[in-house]
Design brief:
By secondary structure, the protein is mostly helical. It contains nine helices and no strands. Helix 6 crosses helix 7.
Length: about 300
């Protein structure tokens, strides 16, 4: 029995009197849910609108308890962020179901197995390109001293509760939600009408723009580049797992840099990846039971 994944094997030879088997699809095209292109933009707008409305409600509730809305306790901030991210996921699932039975199954969002070496190859290539180009950009524009809102919050008052809360959100929740939404849904919907590279660039730009709420404007091009590269990793591997892992590692490095950590970095990465693995295993199991059977590809 071959140990190679199916996509590495040559097509089977036609049997006498049988039909010639169709050519195999690229790794990233194994299953296409057929989401309409417009759903990418409507889902983004709907998710942002719902997230901001529900987030505002959280702030109103926090204000009613006597909390300072200009300096919320970390618990309230986490609730607001979780509500916002939950709105994005809910919006993606709702519009994904427009594709028909099974179109909102977890694997349609990229939760599929992948060959480890294929994942390492593309994730490493993307990381190298991002580090080099973003480093050049930051150096040329002298952005070394610019910080985003999360970094400023950590540096101003790095309490244990605040660091733990932000770490859970930044290195576990955000990579899962943002990859499932932007790469798993938006990029996939755009790819039905656009060439993969143009769909990747468009998704990367949207990814960068969404971060404008908490990042200096000079950081948006590197974020758009990261978003584009993560799309390419997903496209070339056919799985969202490598993109989530790379996103997690990027956020771990950023968090560790903001806190000037050293020996804590490996523990942070190991803990984050372990938590992500557990969460995604649960999502795949529960989502697979809830989703209807996927229609066979024609």
């Amino acid at each position: 029995m071959s140990t190679f994944p199916p996509e590495w094997l040559p097509p089977a030879a036609p049997q006498p009197g049988g039909d010639v088997p169709p050519p195999q699809s690229p790794q990233g095209d194994r299953e296409r849910p057929g989401w309409p292109l417009w759903t990418a933009f409507i889902a983004l707008l709907s998710g942002l609108l719902l997230g901001n409305v529900l987030g505002s409600i959280v702030y109103v509730i926090a204000d009613s308890t006597g909390s300072d809305t200009n300096n919320l306790p970390v618990g309230w901030t986490l609730i607001a962020n979780l509500v916002f991210d939950g709105s994005l996921v809910a919006s993606a699932v709702v519009f994904a179901r427009l594709g028909g039975p099974g179109s909102a199954a977890p694997r349609m969002f990229g939760l599929r197995s992948v060959h480890v070496w294929l994942a390492l190859k593309w994730a490493t290539a993307a990381a190298v390109v991002y580090i080099v180009l973003s480093g050049l950009w930051i150096g040329l524009l002298h952005l070394q001293n610019e910080t985003d809102s999360i970094t400023r919050t950590l540096k101003e008052n790095p309490t244990t509760a605040k660091v733990a809360g932000i770490a859970i959100f930044a290195v576990v929740i955000a990579p899962i939600v943002e990859e499932l939404f932007f790469r798993g849904f938006v990029f996939t919907a755009l790819r039905d009408k656009l060439a993969p590279i143009w769909a990747a660039i468009a998704t990367g730009i949207l990814f960068g723009l969404v971060h404008a709420f908490g990042s200096p404007i000079g950081f948006l091009p590197p974020l758009a580049l990261l978003g584009t590269l993560l799309c390419i990793v997903y496209w070339k591997t056919g799985s969202i797992y490598p993109a989530i892992a790379l996103h997690c590692l990027n956020n771990c490095v950023a968090l560790a840099s903001a806190l000037s950590w050293s020996w804590q970095v490996p523990l942070l990465i190991a803990g984050a990846l372990s938590a992500i693995t557990a969460i995604l295993a649960l999502v795949a199991r529960v989502g697979g039971r809830v989703a209807a059977p996927v229609r066979p590809l024609n």
